[in-house]
Give the backbone structure.
Amino acid sequence: MYFETLTAPLDLIAALSLPSPNFIWSILQMVIGIGLVIFVHELGHFLAAKACGVKCEKFYVGFDAFDIPLGVVRIPSRLAYFQWGETEYGIGILPLGGYVKMLGQHDNPMEAVTDPHAANAAVRLAEDGPRVDAQPDARPAIDPRSYQAKTVPQRMLIMSAGVLMNLVFAVIFASFAFNFGVSYQPALVGDTVGGSPAWEYNLSGSQVLEINGHSTQDRYFPFEEVAQTVMVGGKDQDVTVEIKRLGSEGQTERLSLKPIVGLVKMKGFHPPTIGISPMMSTRLGSKNPTPAGQPAAEAGFEPNDLIVKINGRPVNNRVDLGVELIKFWDQPIVVTVLRGAKNVYFSYQAYLDSGDSDGQMVELNVAPNSYRETGLVMRSGPIAAVQIGSPAYQQGVKAGDRVLAVDGQPFDPLLAVQYLRRKAREEQAVELSLERTTEGQPEMLAIRVTPRFPTTVSTIAENMPIALDELGIAVPVTTEIERVVEGSVAAEQGLMPGDRVIAVTMDFRDEQARAKYLEVAKIKTIEGESLEKNWVALNESLQAAPPSAYWQLQVQRGSETLEFEVQPVASSQYFSEKRGLLLQPLNEIYLAADPADALRCGWQQVQYDSNKILRILRQMVTGNVPMTAIGGVGTIAVGATSEAMSGTPRLLMFLTLLSVNLAILNFLPIPILDGGHMVFLAWEGVTGAPPNERVQEGLTMIGALLLLGLIIFALGLDVWRISGLL
């Protein structure tokens, strides 16, 4: 079992259709790595048993429980084995762990009853040799090399040695990784989700210095650890962060944020989050830098181009780039890229700091991106959040206010940003017509606010409102049609105000575009709870889709259910700032100063991973993290292969986490696991006698059934994840 704390990279499965040499090598590294983690665990038991004089009959990685029949072919229970001395070494067919079979040691007490060498310490050996108990029904003396012939402290050492070995090798794995240098995404906030706690405090572009007491400065602390710290802290625990804002010249702030649930779906549940995403670089994708149908696709970008300037202004990260794109959202832009540099750079500043002069500066003209209109104006809800320090915040706009109009024109939550940006360019104020409910009584307000061009970037996500950053408000959008634009596609189709959309399916009229889409996703119908709060996200996906995309709508009109097809049209007056630039993550390298520093970093990483897994277990006990968070062999294999494709150091960091995970889970006080054996041994050490055979048998059978059920459950979850159902 494995407690996965991030969404498994299941897009890796797509690589199976056309495996590259790098992918095959990554698969091989994954198999070796996971096998090594299991091997060192069993090696711990084996070496400790040998040191205590116990005879080891078998040493297996994988289980050789039974042959697997496949029609006329039968796969043997073991893939390979050999005898060396008194021990049989082998690889079992079932890749669910491993085991060391010691003389007289059985997980099943029923087997122990029939094995004279597994006697429950009723018979002991004198130092001068074997003896038989004086009782007439006594069992024969047990072999001095039997596991049961050893003292309680010796047996405790044997049982705990696997866990200790995993922890030792976890430190070794991490130390080697830090010695080689680990590629990671730093704790820098890129986009924030509109309406989220991070958006309210405008954390986009900030550096996270500390989160929940964990410093990100004195050790390897990638962005994913920030997200995981929020998740394992639980939904009811405020997140305390210390940040340094973009351009703040060293000034820091300490904030307390209340996590929200429902923004992110991970392994079948919604973990708590504060609405942040990692900082992206300005380096375009290595395979597909621009999607078809977007303006950037026609501009001549090439894979791995590094964007260095927009209209002559330098940009160094996703936030810089996003801010500049917003300023010129409705105009052509000139994008300067660095192309053909020998070294890999993720920012213009890194290129300048390197002193390199290779590569070529290329200027590309990118047209504005026409907004795709449907003519549907959906009813908006009350303001969900107001960004602290924003123009709306300064003028007293509050969460719960409902925006009715902007400068006397009916409010369209999806297109209002176009009007606000034009006013921001002219530095002119707008008048918001608001409805505010005070003590149950509605009140009409008119508030003048001067829109701004934002200096940070927000994004749209499922189950979240749309952020009008020009004002600093986040507004939810419902599925009820408030009005239909005259002469629009929706009007021609016969859609009417008051209609409620109850199901949406996005499809494609161009078969080539449809086939390409199906390579990475399924044609799905969004309905029910999945639709209620997702109109903003659905509209955003329509903007990014190929031009032939259209909507199949099911609409509730009174007691009738009607169906419509809506083909959006490119607008001549509304535009999107997104022009189809697909960026790579902003990566850095964490490299230990020397072997001693690498060892220190390795020890710190094992401590951190241990605390993280223990917190996850605690949250699972309290119900804040459901059982769907666990993963089986498939999740482990996919995660390890994905990390291996990012380099050997990343794989070593994954194996560190896996080793710690294996150590902790194996030491849980569950019969049949190492921890369960330790409980029985502790009882024997305190009372002087082992637990009653029937009690031990019953508890062991319960533990075995629970473990088997958990393994089957985890494997089922793996299958569901791969199939996309979870």
